[in-house]
Amino acid sequence: MSADTLATARPAVELEGITKRFPGVVANHDICITVQPGTVHAIVGENGAGKSTLMKILYGMQKPDEGTIKINGTEVSFRTPSDAIEVGIGMVHQHFMLADNFTVLENIVLGAEPKRAGRLDTASARRRIIELAETHGLRVDPDKLVEDLGVGDRQRVEILKVLYRGARILILDEPTAVLVPQEVDELFQNLRELKAEGLTVIFISHKLDEVLGIADAITVIRRGTTVASVDPREVTARQLAELMVGSELPTAETRDSTVTDTVALQVSHLTVEADGHHPPPKGVGFAGYAARLREEGKRLLLDDVTFQVRKGEILGIAGVEGNGQSELIEAIMGIRPAHGLVELDGRDISHWSTLKRREAGIGYIPEDRHRQGLLLEASLWENRVLGHQTRKPARRGIWVDRKASKADTQRIIEAYDVRTPSVETLALALSGGNQQKLIVGREMSGDPAFLIAAHPTRGVDVGAQAAIWDHLRNARANGLAVLLISADLDELIGLSDCIQVIYRGRLVAALDPCEITPEQLGGYMTGAIAGNEEK
Ligand SMILES: Nc1ncnc2c1ncn2[C@@H]1O[C@H](COP(=O)(O)OP(=O)(O)OP(=O)(O)O)[C@@H](O)[C@H]1O
């Protein structure tokens, strides 16, 4: 940009004195941020700092109580996201909002269809999508079904979708949380190209190394207000973390093995069919059944999975989302029928209900905290009891023991640093990271024998992440067996005693976390490096 244009270029976004209050909480207080056009601007802050609230205000989902918003120098007031889209703002949410059984083209135009004589003008939509994809280096095939796309491609479709609606300012909410390192590189390349085209990107992230790698400017929010605007060339990840948290961070771990010889969970020949569950014919055992189904041309979501987790061990499962990890968790929890054997402490639990499995001591941190982890309309203490109704502290005789449940919720709030006004607060009023901390605390309570931890620190800030890692390590040292599924490769490598890679429903490689780099792991996960058990 020449000095002249620099002098005349108006900021893409100016937020001045933004304040937003919720009952009992000031989520945003006097926030001031200026985002220059054609830049990538990162917003960082610990859980509950107020980032999402601010982005919702900028996208017209919430109204500020005070303050002004200017877009390209003009003051605006949004009532709904449509108003924000109208002036060129687009939002890519963390959880993709695409329809799986529609094509890329259909997903992109959905809700903004070009019509000719009252009918969908597919030809002009296709032309425009191809043109947008080429201009911004976002390669996708418009005719592919979304269900056949990998995570990185789906994200590109989401970005194209907002560009198609004319966005010049893009808000990305934790865009790298679900990507492997290679995909992160591609996304960043895309963002650089968007920038070169003069578009502005605002993005929220907890991964500070990545923020430093891509951002042109960084704003730090702490306890609802802007505490610093920093130049990424002038700070380290550690300094940035300390600015966020306002104190020093815990130091790195020691890696002493606590793995015992006692098997807590044994999974044998676990197999899940894509087109529903059909019990095997009489006389056919589990071993070899997957091979038989394969020969019959059946598509398998889980393909003959066998492994064990011993007491004191964390077994990590690495995989690009959609390679069978959800099916694996659901089969172990008894949510989804499967062929094969699941044994807990030597007992066959394959035919037990989910509730019975939980009562037998399986803790479960689910991957989707909104659908499976929390009742958003219920209070925190009621959520503490959820799924644990039949156990202490919830149960007294046939009644729920409210007093004990509330006291235990308070204990979790303190031990896991859940930021909330009280145990009576509704779960929906907590920030995403604080909801996650509550679930982790609940599932670690009551001495589980075996814990499934799916993305245990997704969406939590660096301080809380270190605390959750500590809790997991301590529990492991006390004999807990953990199955850790995570998209965060540093987390997998840092916590696991062994890492298994899942690819197209199969366990294809067993790796030593002390010897593997995130890049190599990413290679196995995407199939670029062939595993040793390919059939
Ligand atoms: N609808 C709501 N009702 C009441 N309080 C809310 C609501 N939404 C957010 N809050 C509160 O506002 C504060 C800021 O939350 P926000 O979700 O903006 O944080 P965040 O920085 O995005 O956190 P995270 O990194 O955990 O997602 C929190 O204390 C939260 O509990």
CATH architecture of the largest domain: 3-Layer(aba) Sandwich
Give the beta-strand count: 24
Low-pLDDT segments, ≥5 res: 1-7, 249-254
The helicity comes to 25-40%
Question: Structural class, please?
Answer: alpha/beta
Dominant shape: globular
As a percent range, the share of strand residues is 15-25%
CATH third-tier fold name of the largest domain = Rossmann fold
CATH superfamily of the largest domain: P-loop containing nucleotide triphosphate hydrolases
Number of contiguous helices: 19
Q: Could you tell me how far the N terminus lies from the C terminus, measured between alpha carbons in angstroms?
A: 55 Å
Number of domains: 3
Q: How does the major sheet shape up?
A: 6 strands, mixed
Arrangement of strands in the largest sheet: 6-9-10-3-11-12
Hetero groups bound?
adenosine-5'-triphosphate
Briefly summarize what is shown.
With 535 residues, the protein is an alpha/beta fold.
